[in-house]
Amino acid sequence: MADGDRPGRKAAARHTWATRCVLVALLLSAFLAPLFLRGYWVRLLANVFMFGILAQGVNIIAGYCGYLALGNILFFGLGAYVTAVLMTHFAFPFPAAFAASGAGAVIFSAGIGLLILRLKGQYFLMATLALSELMREIISSLDITGGGRGLTLPMFAGGAAAVNNFFYYLMLLLMLACTFSIWCIDRSHLGLAFKAIKFDEDAASVMGINPPPYKTAAWAISALFTGFAGSAFAYWMGYIDPGVVFEITPSIKMYLMMVLGGAGTVWGPVAGALFIELVSEFAWSRFMEYQFLIVGSILILTCLFTPKGLMDLVGKKITLSLFTKGIRENRI
Amino acid sequence: MILQMIINGLLVGGLYASIGVSFSLVYGIMGIINLAQGTQIILGAYLTCATCQLFHIDPFLTLPVSALVLFGMGYAVQRCIINLVGKGGVVLTSLLTFGLNLVLINIILLVWNADFRGVNPSYAGKNFEVAGVTIPYVRLAVFFVAVVATMTLHWFLGHTQTGNAIHASSQNKRAAQIVGINIRHSYALTFAISSGLAGAMGTLYVILKPVSPFSGADLLMILFLVAVLGGLGNIPGALLGGMVMGLADSFSVLCLGMQYQKIVLFLGFILVLIFLPRGFFGRRFYG
Amino acid sequence: MKFLEGVSVTRRFGGLVAVNEVDFTVEEGEIFGLIGPNGAGKTTLLNMINGILPISSGKLYFREQCLNDLKPHEITHLGIGRAFQIVRPFEGLTALQNVMVGGIFGMKPRKNSKKAAREAQEVLAFVGLSEKMDRQVAGLTIPDRKRLEVARALAMNPKLLLLDEVMSALNPKEVDDMMEMVREVNRQGVTVVMIEHVMRATMAICHRILVLHHGRRIAMDTPQEISQNEEVLKSYLGERFARMEAERRRTID
């Protein structure tokens, strides 16, 4: 390395230490939070973590691999229903149902992936949307899933505080596990292959990467975590119905969180989840009639001014041109 | 009985076809997936309801209102918003149009509320009979208007200067610019036409069924399917796709009952994407 | 054993025949040129060798192995590297990372990152991009991107290197540098097939040249023979150039 690099390297080293300290501080506060906060906030944060998982799930398949699975929520619903059915009709304990949900999501994504991962971008997008709608309709019409009326799960044993805390930590750990996986992927050959496929699949294949197994792996990992989140959600809420778990709004919110935070980054979607969920909650409680307007506007503004996400802004000088960069590059 | 099903299917297919055409147009020319299309149609429907209520005129006559309002909105939206990220790729533009979709839904919710609304022209229940088949006047009228609108659009694109300019913009942006075509304007015009058509179809749609602010999502699925079947970007193809959709709609109700209709719709869609590599006429689906 | 061989290779796009029953052979260790007017089918032929386009009829053999039904990544693993005409670097990755992709995945079994990084740095030094290796691709100039394309292909340790117009849009000095680079690569044992419009370069460094016109082969010979071939002259080179070339060779000899 040239000599001139050294001051830069020192600054980079300081930067890394600062980041690490911030990260540790955040983690500590996350773990200790339930001791200090009221139930409402604990539940809210648990929700944030859940969306963090969903956003990270989308991050793997869309942010890293470039395949816009707009209907990814289908794994959430699938996971929720697998757990609900197993616990309600077959008396499975939660841990077993949880594991089964994850496994089911992976198997389903691998199977379906064989058929639809070969489709070009826009068709894949539509196919996943149709798939999530299809899943919702099928579940609405089966008896074992309670049809349109939904399913009520066995109650979680314990008082309100216990419930809040259990699911707070469950979602937090799940989100950290998911983020850790992405961190590992980001630095590995797998991640490099994903990125190559995203940027130019044909060129990647000429470079020796065989896309199908990699794409399948990406979607399977995404499905795994999304399915786990669905399973936890079902047990948490105690009641699910097709409308709730296959809703399209969370589907889009996940994407918004990923894009706003930074697609293809390790922590971006988590930051995005925090921001969007807090705004969403605020909008819903104060401005219920305007909630779509608010979320929609944030989405539009994000696409226009921070298409690479907030993570991209970290460490850069905040100037106006930073925000207009997206427009200057993408304008027709 | 079968004949009745076929006729029913074809009649509604005309409407589906036009809806698919407006989506296909924007995708074919600009490569943009307009996720707000469903709600644009619904907005046209609501405008029709409002105009009918205010002026007590026949719903068909409100068509120009919906079409023009949406045309204007479409032009502004494309020119001032979507054009800004036009080269950003399918991801970005799709997300952007979804944002617009949400905003539009909220606007409808604010101006009118969440109730279902419909219009009832005085001749709504009247039919005529031909060869044992009952044809409601309303459905026949809807079919004609839809088909005429689509054919006019097709003619416009192929045979007028503006139309040719739009085509050229899609084939090769830089070449079109060199020849003096204003791309930004062409794109805005394309989106405007698509929106205007959608608005007009909204008028027709609400004559057949009531709508709510969230009905756009169902329509979105239908128009995906029609556009894809006909080959994204292919207008005559979309017409055929619409007919097929209409027929499938009809027959699935007959054979499987209402509750399975949607399942057939979505499953059919996925199967088409997987096994029919070109829709009927379009470009390959596989990369 | 024939190194690279094409037997009656044909590619049809609907009614259009882009490559029409072309026979050719490439000897191991040579620099093989592929020329012809625009639309003659050169890139299509290269795409078929790579596996990006399926062959409509005919056969392609690389070291006696039939390439017809292989996927691109499988062909790459056989030892064929490719630099694209319209450069396709992975935007969003640095130059070093781009080259590493080729290094890591280009051969079986996959190399580990450290080795790939070291070799990538060597390759980048070879093409002259050392100082720019940590730069994002978006910040590279056209000549640099061309060199990056070649670097990516080289990182895969290919036995056969396919180059598609790597010298277009370069100024004369850059063309000279690229010519020397291709010669050096060849000296190290890599067989090169290159599509090129820059005649000066093609004539100077190629051992043999294949001329395509409207998808058909009209000549396959040494540069000297080609420059005197009447059909080639008529369709592509033009008489004046041929005369100049003949003059130049006479003064050298």
Structure characterization notes:
- The complex is a heterotrimer of chains A (332), B (287) and C (253).
- Chain A has a domain at 37-246.
- In chain A, 76% of the residues lie in helices and 1% in strands.
- Chain A has helices at residues 6-36, 39-64, 73-89, 94-116, 121-141, 160-187, 189-199, 201-206, 211-237, 242-245, 248-261, 268-286, 291-305, 320-330; strands at residues 151-152, 239-240.
- Chain B is mainly α.
- Chain B has one domain: ABC transporter involved in vitamin B12 uptake, BtuC, CATH 1.10.3470.
- Chain B is globular, with a radius of gyration of 19 Å.
- Mean pLDDT of chain B is 81; it is low at 283-287.
- With 253 residues, chain C is of the alpha/beta class.
- Chain C has a domain at 80-157.
- Chain C has ten helices and ten strands.
- At the A-B interface, helix 5, helix 11, helix 13 and helix 14 of A face helix 4, helix 8, helix 9 and helix 11 of B.
Main sheet strand line-up of chain B: 1-2
- Morphology of chain B: globular
According to DSSP, the number of beta strands of chain B is: 2
Molecular shape of chain A: globular
Structural class of chain B: mainly alpha
**Strand percent estimate of chain A:** under 5%
- Overall radius of gyration of chain A: 21 Å
Note the gap between the termini of chain A.
41 Å
CATH architecture descriptor name of chain B: Orthogonal Bundle
Measured distance between first and last alpha carbons of chain B = 43 Å
DSSP summary: helix tally of chain A: 14
- What oligomerization state is this entry in? heterotrimer
Count of separate structural domains of chain B = 1
Unreliable stretches covering 5 or more consecutive residues of chain A: 1-5
Tell me which protein chains meet in the greatest interface and how many residues each side has: A-B, 52 and 51 residues
What is the C-alpha radius of gyration of chain B, as a whole number of Å?
Answer: 19 Å
- Poorly predicted tracts of residues of chain B: 283-287
Spatial order of the strands forming the largest sheet of chain A: 1-2
